[in-house]
Amino acid sequence: MSRLLVDTHALLWWLTDDRALSRTAREALADPANEPLVSAASVWEIAIKRSLGKLSAPEDLPERISEEGFSWLAISPAHAWQVRELPAHHRDPFDRMLIAQALTEHVPVITTDSRFTEYGVEIRW
């Protein structure tokens, strides 16, 4: 089983069946041999942007994520501490946390953001 960390935009595209989600990403998320992980940082990001009116998301988002078969990746002290070592290639704090989690957990990320590779993170798209 391969664990895959799902970036926020890819998660939202999966939940809305958006065609912006690549075929490779869609197949990886649908493959029962994979374990897609959703970071608490992504839910936090969505909650903030939803409250600011920058995006729409279902009221029952956490339940929907679980129903879709995603596993949760909590933010651990090790993840938070890993951020201190990240160069400033990427300024978004949510993406920086996902990068730290990917590096700590040794998992690829499903994302369109090629800047993740600047940190040595494998991306799948």
What does this structure look like?
This protein has 125 residues and is an alpha/beta fold. The protein has one domain: 5'-nuclease (Rossmann fold, 3-Layer(aba) Sandwich), CATH 3.40.50.1010. The chain is built from six helices and five strands, in the order E-H-H-E-H-H-E-H-H-E-E. Strands 3-2-1-4-5 form a five-stranded parallel sheet, sandwiched between helices. Helix 3 packs antiparallel against helix 6. The protein is globular. The two termini are 18 Å apart.
SSE layout:
Blueprint: E1 2-6, H1 8-15, H2 23-30, E2 34-39, H3 40-51, H4 61-67, E3 71-73, H5 77-82, H6 93-105, E4 109-110, E5 123-124
Parallel strand pairs: 1-2, 1-4, 2-3, 4-5
Short summary of the structure?
With 125 residues, the protein is of the alpha/beta class. Helices cover 43% and strands 14% of the residues. α3 runs antiparallel to α6 (93-105).
